[in-house]
Amino acid sequence: MKLNRRMQRYLVELRSRSIDAEPLLPGKWPDLSLAEVNGFVLLESFRRKPSLRPADFDGPSALEACANKLLMEKMLDPRLVAACPLLLLTAGLLMAEAISRKLVALPGRFNLIVSYDGESCAVRFHKIRQGERWLAEDLEAYVDEGILVAEAGAGLAPFPQLASRAAGAAQG
Q1: Is the pLDDT reported for residue 104 higher than 70?
Q2: 167 in Cβ contact with 20 (< 8 Å)
Q3: Residues in contact with 128: Cβ distance below 8 Å, sequence separation at least 6, in sequence order
Q4: DSSP codes, the chain
Q5: Contact, 109 vs 151, CB < 8 A?
Q6: Cβ 149 vs Cβ 112: under 8 Å
Q7: 151 or 24, higher pLDDT
Q8: Residues 6 and 147 sit within 8 Å (Cβ to Cβ)
Q9: Where are the domains of the chain?
Q10: CA distance 5 to 163
């Protein structure tokens, strides 16, 4: 797992508080079914309603990172988010855990990316391909947001339970 200093600070702040998103999300999680189509790994919901053309991207990883993007603020009550913006990050970490469990069933390795800037949290993923990079090599280049990247897939360790640990540490 790799993360920039900004994400490290957000995670320290999250651990210092008692934030538990799990009871707030039942029924609001999107369908995380995955499909492999013409070499692309896509969320089934995107595959059914494609809105992107491969020709508009530098490569398959870029298309996947855009198509497989989930915004946490679209899943939570805006009043809750206004009262506790770190709830977005907690939801993003839980979403990343859930996606990681789905990616285990597919061949290959994937970058699972959580980005958070205090107002928005996105979770996305793409297959790792030889000769392609979607993220900047130096995560510190992302000065306006915290970035966390973990590899996921068959035979790899599951996404770390950062949200569960943060909530537990704050309560215990």
Answers
A1: yes
A2: yes
A3: 61, 108, 109, 110, 111, 151
A4: -EE-HHHHHHHHHHHTS----GGG-TTTSPP--EEEETTEEEEHHHHHS----GGGSSSHHHHHHHHTEEEGGGTS-HHHHHH-THHHHHHHHHHHHHHHHHHTTSSSEEEEEEEE-SS-EEEEEEE--TT---S-S-GGG-TTSEEEEEEEETTSPPPP-HHHHHHHHHH-
A5: yes
A6: yes
A7: 151
A8: yes
A9: 2-171
A10: 18
Name the β-bridge partners of 2.
149
- Report the distance separating Cα 106 and Cα 152, nearest Å: 10
pLDDT at residue 168 in the model: 39
Region for residue 47 given its phi and psi (left: phi exceeds 0; alpha: psi -120 to 50; beta: otherwise): alpha
Please list, in sequence order, all residues whose beta carbon lies within 8 angstroms of the beta carbon of residue 78, skipping any fewer than 6 positions away.
none
Query: pLDDT for 127-169, tens place per residue?
Result: 999 999 899 999 999 999 999 999 999 888 888 888 754 443 3
Tell me which residue of 15, 3, 13 sits closest to 142, measured CA to CA.
3
Both tokens assigned to 40: 């692309």
Q: What is the pLDDT of residues 41-92, one digit of tens each?
A: 999 888 777 677 777 788 899 999 999 999 999 888 888 888 888 989 999 9
